[in-house]
Specification:
Elements: H1 7-20, H2 24-30, E1 32-38, E2 52-57, H3 65-76, E3 81-84, H4 90-97, E4 101-105, H5 110-124, H6 126-137
Helix pairs in contact: 4-5
Length: 138
């Protein structure tokens, strides 16, 4: 793909599509229940590095990565970094959901519910990550 837009322009394009319902078909086709933008672009960094997109898929749905990435890149007219949140750990799920820009949710409240679950799971499992680091340090 010959990308003409940087991450900020890509975010603006996705936001415009979200406002008009232009992301609905893409998300429904891929079984996406929540789509967010997170990371440096979402947080307004002066020189964002990339356009990080997180997607939560319908329960039991397996991602078809190449078509999904291609459709999202075409929609953004920008290169993207994709995280399928169903397959990520609690830390990346929280980072991609809490404080992110939600561009699509399949039903009202899907994003905030997913963000809450991710934050609670990250907090509940923090002790295991600390223990793992302690064991690795030995």
């Amino acid at each position: 793909m010959n990308s003409v837009a940087g991450p900020v322009a890509g975010l603006r394009r996705l936001q415009a599509l979200a406002e008009t319902g232009g992301l609905d078909d893409l998300c429904e086709r891929h079984g996406i229940t929540v789509l967010t933008v997170f990371g440096s672009t979402a947080h307004g960094a002066e020189h964002p590095r990339d356009l990080d997109i997180g997607v939560l898929l319908e329960s039991g749905r397996k991602p078809d990565y190449l078509p999904l990435i291609g459709d999202l890149q075409n929609a953004a007219d920008s290169d993207i970094d994709l995280v399928v949140l169903n397959r990520g750990g609690p830390v990346i799920r929280e980072r991609a959901l809490v404080g992110s820009i939600a561009l699509y949710e399949s039903r009202p409240g899907a994003w905030i519910q997913a963000a809450t679950v991710a934050a609670v799971e990250r907090m509940d499992t923090a002790w295991m990550r600390r223990l793992n680091l302690d064991l690795l340090a030995r």
